[in-house]
Design a protein that fits this description.
Blueprint: H1 26-33, H2 36-57, H3 63-80, H4 93-96, E1 105-107, H5 113-130, E2 142-149, E3 152-160, H6 161-167, H7 189-193, H8 200-208, H9 211-221, H10 233-261, H11 271-287, E4 303-313, E5 316-327, H12 335-345, E6 349-352, H13 358-373, H14 381-398, H15 405-419, E7 422-425, H16 432-437, H17 441-447, E8 453-456
Antiparallel strand pairs: 1-6, 2-3, 3-4, 4-5, 5-6, 7-8
Helix pairs in contact: 2-3, 2-15, 3-15, 5-12, 9-10, 13-14, 14-15, 14-17
Length: 458
């Protein structure tokens, strides 16, 4: 198969290949970009730098180094443009949010409304098909498991509010690791406190409980360790602290993995139950009050839908994103009427991938990236796009950084295509990570290549 390049301006999309996303309103742009023009210049520099590194290193290019480079660039941009909360950009979750209790969330409303609508179309159609048989009572809990491709599947759970309460999903059974939740029996609360945001003082108090650390420091200062002679005491102590903190992190992560396997008597106290409860709590916090122009009956929550996407990582199926929304069903009305109301008034909350699954998922992305790097022009552009689709999909769901992942992924996409000699021509409101979040993998894979054109760089 050979490829052909359409003349500039004759494709389906804008003839401009500049990276100039327009999918946010001015207020959101400021919170995400700071000074927008400075951001665009810096983004172009980052795309160029990554593309040049790929071209220079060829098939030997290190995927993880590229991601690290993008993270650093995104962090630098945030500080340079005085973006709010710049300290969170380009920072890996596994470094700063090491406890899996910190489930990062995204509400698909406001700026993300269109993504929420696409997700509703996906999930509601699945739910509607399952409810077609007249013998299925609307209030009966329902679970659907389906494989939508050889490497992906999804799970849909439906239950009424009373069932949610009975299972304990209506409240969070794990707050700060200091209560009586089954999680406390697995995860040492003192270790947890050491990783709380702004918990430096607590962690130092915890370290003081370890007398062997003082002995270790004294041993280093006494000259038993040759390398210590050129290092001041503060540097030695900081190194010991980092090593101990990493040990604690490993213990904590393993503890949560063990806890995830447990099946407590109250489902809401399980690992998955805590996640669902957090999603429900977020919905209640944001959308409990009737919306303007609507009576309370249009926003009451009578049922909940829980949707989980899974993807093959190595030999296992990993949960990559989970979703929660509500339905308001008036007894006796058709399912179509309930879903029509949900399209208007319900919102989705995304719970991003578990922290302790991120590293293995990135290794899977590394393998997908290596496959992209093996592409030859004789394979054709459609083949290149089909190689890129699974990489872009899984990277989006991995959501590796606290903030900035979406931009980093867009930069990487453009850099890869540029390294092969192509500009990306696309509409300015394209945001493929939201397309990934709102689509099952099979749909994203089939539609990814139609969302942009590739034009050869002259």
């Amino acid at each position: 198969m050979t490829y052909s390049t359409p003349p500039p301006g004759t494709g389906r999309f804008s003839p401009s290949y500049a990276y100039d996303p327009q999918y946010f309103d001015p207020l959101v742009k400021k919170s995400c970009y700071g000074d927008h023009q400075q951001y665009l210049v810096a983004a172009e520099d980052a795309i160029k730098a990554v593309a040049e590194k790929i071209q220079a290193d060829g098939i030997r290019v290190d995927f993880h180094e590229l991601l690290a480079l993008l993270s650093r660039r995104r962090s630098e941009v945030a500080f340079r443009t005085k973006t709010p909360h710049a300290e969170n950009f380009g920072v890996r979750r596994v470094e700063e949010e090491v406890t899996p209790f910190r489930f990062p969330l995204l509400v698909l409303g406001g700026q993300y409304k269109a993504a929420g609508e696409r997700l509703s179309e996906t999930v509601f159609s699945i739910f509607k098909d399952a409810m077609r048989p007249s013998t299925v009572p609307f209030d009966k809990p329902l679970t659907i498991n389906r494989k939508d491709s050889p490497v992906s599947s999804f799970n849909l759970e439906f239950m009424d509010v009373e069932t949610v309460k009975k299972k304990g999903y209506d409240k969070i059974h794990w707050e700060l690791g200091l209560g009586t939740s089954p999680a406390d029996k697995v995860v040492n609360p003192l270790i947890y406190c050491g990783f709380c945001r702004d918990g430096k003082e607590t962690y130092e108090m915890f370290v003081k409980r370890r007398p062997h650390l003082k002995a270790e420091l004294e041993r280093c200062l006494s000259g038993e360790v040759e390398a210590s002679k050129s290092r001041p005491p503060d540097a030695l102590w900081a190194a010991i602290m980092r090593e101990e903190k990493e040990k604690d992190r490993q213990v904590l992560v393993q503890g949560w993995k063990d806890f995830k396997k447990q099946v407590p008597t109250v489902p809401g106290m399980s690992y998955g139950g805590i996640k669902l409860a957090i999603g429900i709590t977020e919905l209640k916090r944001n959308f409990s009050e009737p919306q303007e122009g609507c009576d309370s009956s249009s926003t009451d929550k009578t049922h909940y839908l829980f949707f989980t996407m899974r993807h093959k990582v190595g030999e296992k199926m990993y949960a990559i994103s989970q979703y929660v929304t509500w339905l308001n069903h008036i007894r006796g009305e058709p399912v179509d009427r309930t879903l029509d109301r949900a399209y208007q008034h319900s919102h989705w909350v995304i719970i991003h991938q578990d922290i302790f699954l991120q590293t293995a998922t990135l290794e899977e992305c590394n393998g997908l990236f290596q496959y992209v790097m093996q592409w030859k022009k004789t394979d054709g552009l459609e083949d290149l796009k089909m190689r890129m689709a699974p990489l872009m999909y899984l990277l989006s769901h991995n959501h590796r950084d606290i903030r900035g992942t979406a931009a980093e992924n867009e930069w990487l996409e453009r850099a890869i295509y540029r390294s092969f000699g192509f500009h990306v021509h696309t509409l300015p409101d394209r945001m493929f990570d939201l397309e990934a979040f709102s689509s099952c993998y099979s749909t994203f894979r089939d539609t990814y290549g139609t969302s942009f054109d590739l034009v050869e760089i002259e």
